[in-house]
Amino acid sequence: MPNEEELFAAVDALLAGEPEMPPPAERARLRDTAGVTQARLAQALQTTTQSVKNWESGRSEPRPPRRQAYQRLLDGWIAQYGTQPQTAPAAPATFTGTAADPSPQQQEPTSAVEPSAPAVTARSSSSSRRPAAKKAAKKPVAPSITQARLAVALKTSTQTVKNYENGRSEPKSPRLEAYQRLLNGWAAKYPAHGAPSASAPAPAAVPQSMPETFTGPTAPEPEVAAPMEAPAAPAARPATTSRRPATKKAAKPAPALDPRFPNGPLAVLDGDGSAYGVGGIVLDCPATTVVELVEWTLREAGLGAPKLHRNGKDSDPLIVLTASAAVKLGLPERLEDRRGLRLEEDHPVVKQVLKAKWQLTQRGFGPWARIYRKAQGSQRQCVQLAILPWDALDTRSWPGVADMEPADIAQVLGIYAQRVATPRGSTAVSGLELMTALRPPTRPVRDEETGNWVSGHNPGSLGTEPMDPAPPEGQIEHPAVHSIGWNGGFLREEAFQWVRSVDTLTDEECMLPYAVGLDLNTAFLAAAARLTVGLSAPDHFLGPKFNPKIPGSWLVDLSHVDIDPRLPSPFTPDGTRPTGPAWYQTHTVAYAQELGYNVEILEAYLRRETGAYLDPWHDRLKAAYVDTLADMGVTKDLTDAEFLAAMEQHKQVDPVLTAVLAAVKGTIKGGIGKLFENPQGKGHKDGEPWPAMMRPTWRPDIRAAVISKARVNMHRKLANMAKMTGLYPLAVLSDCVVYPAPSASPLDFLPYAASGKPQPGAFRLGPTPGLAKLEGVQEMAWAVDLMEKGLNPARHIKGGDAVLDEGE
Question: What is the pTM assigned to this prediction?
Answer without folding.
Answer: 0.70
